[in-house]
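Fig. S4 source data, part A: sequence.
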Amino acid sequence: MPTVLFKTLIDLYIMVMLLRIWMQWTRCDFYNPFSQLIVKITQPLIGPLRRVIPTLGPLDSASLLLALILAVIKIPLLMLIEVHVLILEPIFLLAGLLTLLKVAGELVFWVVIIRSLLSWVSQGRSPMDVVLYQLTEPLMYPIRRILPAMGSIDFSAMVVILILYALSYLGMSLFPGMW
């Protein structure tokens, strides 16, 4: 039970770090309450790192490095909790990169799903709608140009999710057992 909780907490924090990177990359509204929440959650660890690690253009390299470090040390820490032995192998770097990619795909999946569900409920009146729109529109707009809305139904979210599933199956077939 502690390993499931620990794994979930690490994955959620990696997801929040990646969300911070994604929000900076898409230039989300910094003064939005949801944006402020993400910054407040990540700032205690990112603040000191930013003094040492410079940003690379629109990419928040400190957040990316911290997310990668968390992804790499996740497996050794889980083994330490379960087996009470700390093992460090070079393969854990590849496993960390794969974990980072998988968590990024899960993050995109959930953001698209939440945006789709909120579009039915709040219809653009929530501050979170603005951030979700700013995050997902760069992914959904190119699909919408190719596949226009049919009536009032927008299929671009469904296409993004199908692409994510295809990429996940590709990861499972390329890296069985690690994905």
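Fig. S4 source data, part B ends here. The CA atoms of residues 27 and 174 lie 33 Å apart.
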